[in-house]
Amino acid sequence: MNIIAAVDNNWGIGYRNRLLNSIPEDMRFFRETTTGKVVVMGRNTLESFPGKRPLKNRVNIVLTGKEDFTAGDAVIVHSLEEALQELSKYPDEDIYIIGGESVYRQFLPYCDTAHITAMDNTYAADAFFPNLDEDPEWEVAGESEERTYFDLPYVFKLYKRKKNLDF
């Protein structure tokens, strides 16, 4: 499975259920990467979208504790186990975990690829992504040239889970 996020210098991802910044190239990368795929998110992430509607041209799976929650054609699940059972219907490479913080933390152990847009700034944040640079199970497998959006430097990083070589 894949995980995809934009983070600041402290691995912050959001503040008051909003993204820290909206970089057009990052948004385009997200759209192109996830279109036609399966996206997994929490209810708050879904409710942060325009019209609080599922993303178009994707299978949307929403993890929520609210038993009566509905959202268009999104598949609603109520536990990690139920989500994993639903995801077993799809190829791992077609699954993207898209947030928020608690969903990222729950699914990270099941992911082997992370697409991270690293913004060289520190924002006020109340939601965070696990710091992959401090996690010995992860390594940077690729990094773009530095880009700039107005005065904000950022890079696209591809992280891969290290293969366990212990037998």
Can you give a write-up of this model?
- With 167 residues, the protein is of the alpha/beta class.
- The chain has a single domain (2-161), classed as Dihydrofolate Reductase, subunit A, CATH 3.40.430.
- The chain contains 4 helices and 12 strands.
- It has helices at 24-34, 43-47, 80-87, 101-107; strands spanning 2-7, 12-15, 18-19, 38-42, 59-63, 75-77, 95-99, 113-119, 127-128, 138-143, 147-149, 152-161.
- Strands 1, 4, 5, 6, 7, 8, 10, 11 and 12 form a 9-stranded mixed β-sheet that branches.
- The longest helix has 11 residues, at 24-34.
- The chain is globular and about 45 Å long.
- The mean pLDDT is 96.
Please supply descriptive tags for the structure shown above.
single chain, 167 residues, alpha/beta, Dihydrofolate Reductase, subunit A, three-stranded antiparallel sheet, 4 helices, 12 strands, globular
Radius of gyration: 16 Å
- Tell me what portion of residues adopts beta-strand conformation: 25-35%
How helix-rich are the residues, as a percent range?
A: 10-25%
CATH architecture: 3-Layer(aba) Sandwich
Q: CATH homologous superfamily, by name?
A: Dihydrofolate Reductase, subunit A
Continuous helix count? 4
pLDDT < 50 stretches:
none
Nutshell version of this structure?
By secondary structure, the protein is an alpha/beta fold. The chain is 19% helix and 35% strand. The protein has one domain (2-161): Dihydrofolate Reductase, subunit A.
